[in-house]
Specification:
Elements: E1 6-12, E2 16-25, E3 28-38, H1 53-69, E4 78-82, H2 84-88, H3 92-103, E5 107-109, H4 112-125, E6 133-139, E7 144-150, E8 153-160, H5 164-171, H6 179-193, H7 196-199, E9 207-211, H8 213-224, E10 232-233, H9 234-247, H10 263-279, E11 284-287, H11 292-303, H12 310-321, H13 326-343, H14 348-362, H15 375-385, H16 393-404, H17 420-435, E12 447-452, E13 455-460, H18 464-467, H19 469-482, E14 488-492
Parallel strand pairs: 1-4, 4-5, 6-9, 9-11, 13-14
Antiparallel strand pairs: 1-2, 2-3, 6-7, 7-8, 10-11, 12-13
Helix pairs in contact: 1-3, 4-11, 5-10, 6-10, 8-10, 9-10, 13-14, 13-17, 14-16, 14-17, 15-16, 17-19
Length: 494
């Protein structure tokens, strides 16, 4: 990546949407601009997990303003990620379709573990380098992420379903606060986080950092009221809890440093924070400067660095975990991407799709770990449900659909086949798997695959069919399979 390149990250959180713009220079990012808008999208999620029209419109209006600021940015310069509210929302596709049209960039709904990984990456990049073992947590609107790490490396990551918006709505309706309600909220938070003690025992870390909204807000309030700056202590939290409990309603709380946009969700966030500090016996908590959006920025840099893309490491890890035949995976990947290069123009977008096709090809036999019978169905299920650092839900689902469609009838992929690039990827993967049926590298250089106006055509060199009669027969069967789709496929196997 060239020095001076502008990068942007958008965090579509449950309480706020944030835009961070930075300039790359020699592996570091200098902040150029930071915009935060309180959208309260999480508060618009009803008991049936349906996002209200008003909440969606607040989000769209905010993204329209972000889009104006991002005019002129290229796709590889921007990463937009959405977290717990859109993970939960049953009508998220309705919101995302319009949101992406307004913003002009793809929006990734990321898994909780991916959110945790990006949070740690953002926190660690803005901390002095040391060999300390760190517990990092982030209390968001509807989820709380916890990470155990050292240096830039996150060793353990989890996401839990509790946060400032969810707890405020549930335990402090209409802003009403009582000592009993606060105690109930704290006990409920401990019940959710109790299992986290096994994953993040205090014996395995020696410094605790809190990232983002709630921790930052609490630190600001304490500092503005005479407590030590840059640290949150248990005595400070006890004082703050007492002040809120005595106020009876959050609107009546009068404290220096309490911002109006934080007021509706501060009680819920504070109760979760008190629970964490007590449960993990944290004597002092250090507010971290980095957060999810900084992690997303540095992830953009890593994706442009050879060997730096965490998704590549994840694919290798999955291949090892599910005992995939490495040699066969490499053969199918090589053939599939070679065919894809023949039907997709050489540009940055198709290069990204070629890389994703290669990953799907390398994992196409992941389902055999469960059973060889209907292995492609098992493989699709694994990819749709596995924790895969670096990948968004849509990326994993696209790969799962490619794995599902590698063989068998195409009727099961009718919806996905409406996408031309997906159809090209699938055609190339299916041809690659059948050409590699003998688990040997096929003579694929003798095959020419072309595409024009919805029609694929395969032509072989003369004599190829005589040398590979089984492959020739399989190609004939493949022609028949595609006749039941909206795409045309013909073959001259000579």
């Amino acid at each position: 990546m060239q020095n001076g390149t502008l990068l942007a990250a958008i965090d579509l959180g449950s309480n706020s949407f944030r835009l961070e713009i930075g300039r790359y220079h020699s592996g570091h990012i200098e902040r150029i601009e930071y915009i935060k808008e309180t959208v309260r999208q999480g508060a618009g999620l009803d008991e049936n997990k349906v996002l209200s029209q008003a909440a969606m419109e607040r989000g769209w209006d905010c993204l329209a303003r972000f889009a104006e600021r991002l005019h002129g940015f290229k796709k590889q310069q921007v990463r937009a990620v959405a977290t717990q509210t859109l993970r939960e929302a049953r009508n998220r596709e309705e919101f995302l379709q319009q949101a992406q049209k307004i913003l002009g960039f793809a929006i990734e709904v990321i898994a909780g573990q991916e959110e945790a990984r990006l949070i740690y990456q953002g926190v660690s990049r803005l901390l002095p380098q040391s060999d300390e073992k760190r517990l990092v947590f982030d209390i968001g609107g509807r989820s709380t992420e916890m990470i155990l790490g050292e240096g830039y490396k996150a060793h353990r990551m989890e996401s839990y379903r509790l946060g400032s918006v969810a707890w405020s709505n549930k335990y402090f309706p209409r802003g009403q606060i009582t000592p009993t309600a606060f105690k109930t909220a704290e006990v409920a938070a401990k019940a959710v986080l109790d299992e986290a003690l096994d994953s993040f025992p205090p014996t395995e870390w020696n410094a605790a950092y809190g990232s983002s909204g709630t921790v930052g807000a609490v630190a600001d309030i304490l500092a503005a009221n005479g407590w030590a700056s840059g640290v949150i202590t248990r005595s400070g939290l006890a004082w703050l809890e007492d002040r809120f409990s005595k106020a009876s309603n959050v609107d009546l709380v009068r404290l220096e440093g309490l911002k109006d946009d934080r007021r509706p969700v501060i009680a819920g966030g504070l109760s979760v924070l008190c629970a964490i500090v007590d449960l993990f016996d944290i004597q002092q908590l250090l507010p971290a400067q980095g957060a999810l959006r900084q992690g997303a920025l540095y992830d953009l840099i890593d994706r442009e660095t050879d060997g730096g893309d965490v998704r590549e490491r994840t694919v290798r890890w999955l291949a090892e975990r599910f005992s995939i035949d490495e040699a066969q995976a490499k053969r199918v990947s090589t053939v599939a991407t070679a065919l894809f290069a023949q039907v997709a123009a050489v540009d940055a977008q198709n290069e990204r799709y070629s890389r994703k096709l290669a990953w799907a090809a390398r994992l196409h036999e992941i389902g055999t770990h469960i059973s060889h019978d209907r292995s492609y169905h098992h493989g699709a299920y694994i990819l749709d449900n596995v924790d895969a650092p670096g990948f968004s839900f849509p990326e994993l689902h696209r790969m799962s659909q490619l794995v599902l469609g590698q063989r068998g009838k195409l009727r099961k992929l009718e919806q996905s086949l409406g996408d031309e690039l997906f159809a090209k990827q699938l055609m190339c993967l299916r041809l690659a798997t059948l050409l590699c049926h003998a688990r040997q590298m096929p003579e694929y250089e003798s095959i020419r695959l072309s595409y024009k106006s919805g029609a694929f055509k395969l032509v072989t060199h003369p004599g190829w069919a005589r040398r590979y009669p089984q492959s020739a027969w399989l190609i004939g069967e493949e022609v028949i399979a595609w006749q039941k789709t909206s795409w045309k496929f013909s073959a001259e196997v000579r």
